[in-house]
Amino acid sequence: MRVTVLGSGTSHGVPSIGCDCEVCRSTDPKDHRTRPSILIDVTPGPKAAAFRRDGFAAGVRSILVDTSTDLRSQALSNDVRRIDAILFTHSHADHIFGIDDVRRYNQMQQSPIPCYADADTLASLKRMFAYVFEPPKQRGGGVPQLAIFRIAGPFTLGGVEIVPVPLFHGELPVLGFRIGAFAYLTDCNRIPDESWPLLDGVRTVILDALRHRPHSTHFSVAEAVDVSRRLGAERTYFTHICHDLGHARTNAQLPPGVELAYDGLVLEIDA
Ligand SMILES: [Zn+2]
Ligand SMILES: [Zn+2]
Ligand SMILES: [Zn+2]
Hints:
The radius of gyration is 18 Å and the shape is globular. It has helices at about 70-75, 95, 100-110, 120-130, 130-135, 220-230, 245-255, and strands at about 1-5, 35-40, 60-65, 85, 115, 145-150, 155, 160-170, 170-180, 180-185, 205-210, 235-240, 260, 265-270. It contains seven helices and 14 strands. It is α/β, with parallel strands linked by helices. The strands form two sheets. Strands 6-5-4-3-2-1-14 form a seven-stranded mixed beta sheet. Strands 7-8-9-10-11-12-13 form a seven-stranded mixed beta sheet. The structure holds zinc ion (3 copies).
């Protein structure tokens, strides 16, 4: 399985509009962060053939997590040719406002894209993107073709099991996702007791760490380092990073096995 970090930045992106701070003016490409998203390429497991082709799940190779505001530029810079399924963590703007760019994948693949989210996120998507889900008033540029599925527990795509991991983002319940020994835990500042067992044995984690100062809905760097220790992960990469954290300088201060993710980072993960 291969995970590509499409975007490692917080909702404003880095550089932040109109900011002259050291990180926003940095020439290190790793200090340029688009809005948070990852792409998971799964190598079909031995179970894949056993799954009856139900239209979607069996042939899944390429899973996008969230349709960030920067989806188009992320797809171009990482040459993303296919999206077989989309998982949504929650419905904040930075995670969903690229949804219209899914149209291009509909064109190329000649099919709707299955989207998976919890009930609250699905309700928000339908409200915020009424033009996608309501019958069109006229034919024109087209709308994204999405087939929506409610997440109610673990499910299988392309022969791999996707385990939703309930997290808290302030008061808001959101989902992280675990696939094999990998977990993606963005937009959170608390892992509830019942979710820890779901993360038992993870070896590679991408985890929210906004900045050093505490925040009401995101882990700080110190909090995220503690979470990483408790998880016992071999490799932890921080994401949803704001302009307070310079890439090189922050990495030099982090403990072994913990580092900042960056846009374009590719992780090869053993299943
Ligand atoms: Zn976010
Ligand atoms: Zn700045
Ligand atoms: Zn959020």
